[in-house]
Design brief:
heterodimer; A: 236 residues; B: 146 residues; alpha+beta; 4-stranded antiparallel β-sheet
Chain lengths: 236, 146
């Protein structure tokens, strides 16, 4: 009897998880679109989609990054960890929509290939303040694509756990790229303190949770749990 | 989490916690303070009263206009948007376009009408040529002989 891989081993929990994610995604888009149309009545549909998908993908990335340490801090969050890869793939798809719309809106319909235009329309690679932020977003999307494409036990087995994990730890590099993408992009034009504050809060939350989980795990390793009366020692 | 992974996480987060807040503060401090007004298109001047000559080349019409006070104007009428992103209008005294010996009048974009006011240099009465030149592709798009 051989082992076969299936795209998704659906079960009840996964279906509930995905339905909740998709429901929340839809809710976010509706609320965001409503607020944007209220505050900016002349906004075009393309700008609305770009802003909605960009902000949603960024928010989802923060949530994905928080799930790991939260699960270590409190076992109540383990159900979120169980299907984190579903969240990650949906995050990539939303980010992809954001990227494609940006590419079409700002780089298509000219006499230059849109991808070439992405890298050559702003060539201030030697400047920090004017650094081409779209290039940062492009490479972050590339990393998210590789992660989404390999989010399956098939790749975990065939790439080897070491390579697979190394690939997926690039999420931290993608996170750094995306923070800079936002801070060198939209945050340069729209400087509302609330927006800057929320971005800083996101970074503080993710790094704070990772730090807290690290401290907790270090304490556990330094003070391992005593063996149970039956002689067994809990390991995980 | 294995000890190797834990160490890797530790090093990565050490780097992120040190670098990211610094970079983010730097983006706030180095934000351009002024919006570059030079990129905004100037208002199109009104057409001068006297139409001296009109020429047409490949769907581009160039009208030479003048005002009694001596001001000259080249009026460009585009029947279709140009497929050249950096079409620049030059005025030269030679039929062959030489960037160093031509006067820049302005740039053409996607609009239908452009007018460029200028005063003629005091160099006799040569036959003037208006050249539309793309500096990115380094090619002359059209030349109008007046």
């Amino acid at each position: 009897m051989s082992n076969t891989y299936r795209p998704v081993l659906w079960n009840r929990q996964k279906k509930i998880y995905d339905r909740i994610i998709l429901g929340l995604v839809l809710l976010y888009i509706l609320v965001f679109a409503g607020l944007q149309m209220f505050f900016f009545p002349n906004i075009s549909i393309e700008t609305l989609i770009i802003r909605a998908t960009g902000s949603l993908a960024f928010l989802m990335l923060h949530i994905v990054l928080c799930i790991g340490p939260l699960s270590r801090l409190n076992p109540l969050f383990l159900p979120l960890l169980y299907n984190r890869r579903h969240l990650g793939v949906i995050l990539f798809l939303i980010a992809l929509i954001h990227g494609i719309f940006n590419l079409i809106q700002f780089h298509a319909l000219g006499n230059v290939n849109p991808l070439l235009s992405l890298f050559t329309s702003n060539t201030h690679y030697d400047s920090f303040a004017n650094f081409p932020f779209q290039t940062l977003g492009f490479f972050a999307l590339l990393i998210l694509f590789v992660m989404a494409a390999t989010s399956h036990d098939f790749w975990l087995k065939n790439l080897s756990p070491k390579v697979w994990k190394s690939l997926h730890m690039m999420v931290y590099f993608a996170y750094a790229l995306l923070l800079l993408h936002v801070f060198l992009g939209i945050a340069q034009l729209e400087t509302a303190p609330l927006r800057i504050g929320l971005l800083a809060l996101g970074l503080f939350t993710v790094s704070g949770l990772h730090l807290s989980a690290a401290i907790l795990e270090k304490r556990k390793s330094q003070n391992p749990a005593p063996p149970n009366n039956d002689g067994f020692v809990p390991v995980c | 989490m294995t000890p190797t992974l834990r160490k890797r996480h530790y090093l990565i987060w050490l780097l992120l916690i040190v670098l990211l807040p610094g970079l983010l503060i730097a983006t706030a401090l180095l934000r351009p303070q002024e919006f570059d007004q030079k990129n905004l298109p100037a208002a199109i001047p009104k057409a001068l009263p006297t139409l001296l000559q009109s020429k047409e080349v490949d769907g581009l019409q160039a009208n030479w206009r003048s005002h009694p006070d001596g001001t000259q104007q080249i009026e460009m009428l585009l029947s279709a948007p140009l497929r050249y992103p950096a079409a620049t209008v030059f005025l030269g005294s030679q039929a062959t376009f030489l960037p160093s010996q031509a006067q820049v009048l302005g740039q053409l974009g996607s609009g239908p009408v452009y007018r460029f006011n200028f005063t003629l240099p005091q160099v006799g009465n040569p036959a003037w040529h208006v050249h539309i030149y793309d500096p990115i592709k380094t090619q002359v798009i059209a030349t109008f002989a007046f």
